[in-house]
Amino acid sequence: MHKDSTNVKMFEVIEEPLSIEGVVAKVVHPHAGAINTFIGTVRELTNERRTLYLEYEAFVPMAEKQLRVIGAEIAERWPDTRVAISHRIGRLDITDIAVIIAVSTPHRAHSYEASRYAIERIKEIVPIWKKEHWEDGESWIGDQKETVAYPTGRPEGLTDD
Amino acid sequence: MIKVLFFAGIREKMDRESVNVNAANGTVNNLKQMLIEQYPEIADDVSRSMIAVNEEFVAEDTVLQENDVVAIIPPVSGG
Q: To the nearest 10°, the Cα dihedral for A23, A27, A33, A34?
């Protein structure tokens, strides 16, 4: 099940349906004692509003670059860890998988931490947007935590290259 | 010329994916102000957006070079 990582795209933003097994296979490694997966799915009810379907849009080359940045942040924080992230764009229906994060680590504690870190960072620095379509309207969803433009021109936590 | 890329709600309001503007040698902040003045329909969105130059987030006092590609990044909602 071990894949040669030299030709495998560990971080991708694609229009095709995602494969859990495919993403997991990318992080299988002899050093790993744990593989943790996060699967983001399309939910029907949000704030009592019923979603009919979602649309995801991305600035694809930059989104893949930012996913790689997250991978590098994880590698630095949790040594000997492997990460693969696939995010789907286009029209997604209820229960469809929007994102898969697979993390492999020598010991299981780090696999939970790194996996959570990855999804939180995706929601900060990756240029992907979702649009909710309801029966009586539609709306692009923005970050509801912060409505102020970042004063330094970038979100917190980014390291300088 | 600087190419400015639009996404999501801004792309929809503008009904186009990009515009070219004369903003080389000015700062990112200058460009932001230019867009806010020229396109009032997206003014609020632009002022709430992050700016990426050549696919990297930059500080707003960054000086733009000819042929830079700027992306207006509204609050993201992936994941």
A: -30
Answer yes or no: are the C-beta atoms of A66 and A126 closer than 8 Å.
yes
Question: What's the CA gap between A119 and A37, in Å, rounded?
Answer: 11
Q: Which helix (H) or strand (E) holds A84?
A: strand A82-88
3-state secondary structure of A130: strand
Residues A116-138: tens digit of each pLDDT: 999 999 999 999 999 999 999 99
CA nearest A62: which of A126, A9, A155? A126
Is the CB of A154 less than 8 angstroms away from the CB of B59? yes
ipTM above 0.85, yes or no: yes
Query: What's the rounded Cα separation, in Å, for the pair A117 and B41?
Result: 36
**Rounded Cα distance, B28 and A27, in Å:** 39
**Percentages helix, strand, coil for chain A, rounded to the nearest 5?**
25, 35, 40
Q: In this structure, what DSSP letter does residue B59 have? A: -
Which tokens sit at B10?
Answer: 């801004």
C-alpha A126/C-alpha A124 separation (Å) is 6
Hey, are the CB atoms on A40 and B79 less than 8 Å from each other? yes
Among residues B19, B10, B15, the alpha carbon closest in space to that of B45 is found at B10
**A130, A150, A161 member nearest B77 (Cβ):** A130
pLDDT of amino acid A58: 98
Cα–Cα distance, B58 to B61 (Å, whole number):
8
